[in-house]
Amino acid sequence: MSVLDNWDQWKNFLGDRLDNAQEQGMSQDVINQLAHQVGDYLANQVDPKNEQERVLSDLWSVASEEEQQAIASVMVRLVENNSSH
């Protein structure tokens, strides 16, 4: 089973990676840029595995570059809020 199969597992996976990036001293700007790159990769290379991923994929496909940056930034904030361990 892939982490992409379940929305909560995906958010937890991203939250763990975000925690690691912050512990390594990555700035918020670098984290947001990486989130955008991951979002772009997923939108172009990976078939969504659940309804939430489908919505994100559909939004990503019609968003401008600036809007994609905003989506990526919001996803970072979402996993930050979920990963308050």
Describe the structure using short key phrases.
85 residues, mainly alpha, Cytochrome Bc1 Complex, Chain D, domain 2, 4 helices, YmfJ/YflH_sf, Protein YmfJ, Uncharacterised_YmfJ, DUF3243
Walk me through this protein's architecture.
Helix 2 crosses helix 4. The chain contains four helices and no strands. The longest helix has 18 residues. The two termini are 24 Å apart. The radius of gyration is 12 Å and the shape is globular. The chain is an all-alpha fold. The protein has one domain: Orthogonal Bundle (Cytochrome Bc1 Complex, Chain D, domain 2), CATH 1.10.760.
Give me the CATH fold name. Answer: Cytochrome Bc1 Complex, Chain D, domain 2
Helix-strand pattern: HHHH
Number of strands: 0
Main β sheet profile: none
DSSP helix fraction: over 70%
* Strand residue content: under 5%
Calculate the terminal CA-CA distance, rounded to whole Å.
24 Å
Determine the mean pLDDT: 89
Number of domains: 1
The CATH homologous superfamily is termed Protein of unknown function DUF3243
CATH architecture: Orthogonal Bundle
- Tally of individual helices: 4
SS-derived structural category: mainly alpha
**What is the gyration radius calculated from CA atoms?**
12 Å
Task: Give the uncertain stretches in residue-range form.
Answer: none
The CATH top-level class label: Mainly Alpha
- Principal-axis shape: globular
